[in-house]
Each structure stands twice: as C-alpha cells, then as structure tokens.
Sequence to fold (208 residues):
Amino acid sequence: MKIEQVFKNNQKWIEEKLSVNQNYFNDLSKGQAPEFLYIGCSDSRVTAEDIMGVQPGEVFVHRNIANVVNNIDLNVHSVINYAVQHLEVKHVVICGHYYCGGVKAAMQPTDMGILNPWLRNIRDVYRLHKEELNCIKDEDARYNRLIELNVQEQCINLIKIKAIQKAHAERNLLVHGWVFDVKTGKLIDLKIDFKKILKGIMDIYKLT
Fold:
C-alpha cells in the first residue's frame, strides 16, 4: 500500500462517520471513558477494536510482542496505572492469539539477539509448565497450549500489581484471559479464575 492511500482511506473514514453522526468527532474530542483495558500482542493481524466489535473511546489498548506484563517494563505498568487509577476501567484483559510469532520464537532454542531478554519471559512460562507441555506430542497443539499458558501467567502478573489489587478490593475490578483464533476469527475466554488466583497468591504478593 502506498502512503498516499492511507490518507485517502482516512478521508473516506471521516466521511463515513459524519454521514451517520455529524457530531461524531466533536463528541470524541470531549474525552474517553473506556470500561476495558486490553493488553494484546503487536501482531498486525490482531486489532482489539475489530475483534471486540467496539468503537474508538470504548477500550484502552496496550500492545507488545506476545502480550507480556513484564515486572520491569515501565511502559506496560504506566498504561495499567493510568487505565486503572485514572480512567477507572472495570475490566483488564490479557489477549493472546494462536499462531503468535513471539511465542513460537520463544519455543526455539535459537539466539534472537536483542529479543532474547523479552522472549525469556515466555521461555519462563514454558519452564513453569514444562511437564504438561512436553507431554503434548503434536507440535502445533503444544504451541497453542503455550499461548494459552502465557495468557494465564500474564494474568497472574497483573494480579500481583498493587493498583489491580486495590481496584478489585474497592470497586470489583476484574482480570480476564482471552485468546483470539486467527484461523476462525473466534475470541475465546479462557475463564481465568481471577478470585481464586488472587486468594492463592495473597500470602506472597499482597500489597494493599
């Protein structure tokens, strides 16, 4: 696609929005009040607004390689803090996707250069669940299971955060783990038991 086409697309989008609601952009400029914080993968095939069927202003989005909540990543923690404490979102979602290149790279015993420290987060997930994963003989099935387990572990990383714990205690903020199936377009709820996990780790990670 040529750069010029992007601006043509933008103009067409503006016209379409105004044809439905003449005040669309005026309303949009007044602020945001999203109920969801979505933390997903940077993969170009997976866009939060499209798969959730929501409009601009309805979901606050952060994306990185393989939807990781790294305990020393100031970027993701700043997003979480702003969304939870200032926007007061009601739900925080970790959304992975099948056929994730970041997870696949982490499964390979290969030097990935600058990516090595980032992929180590996912390799640590493999280590934690090595027994289960190594019992899965089919490589694609093992790959997809690691994607699900990575979502689960990133949800646990979220639950360790003080702002998440505080918002849950004060206004019942919830954490969710989802996977998007690129082959079917289906959004799958992994039914992460937020309250059970929270209860199970509070003796170590309680910060409120």
Notes: The domain at 32-205 is CATH 3.40.1050.10 (Beta-carbonic Anhydrase; Chain A).
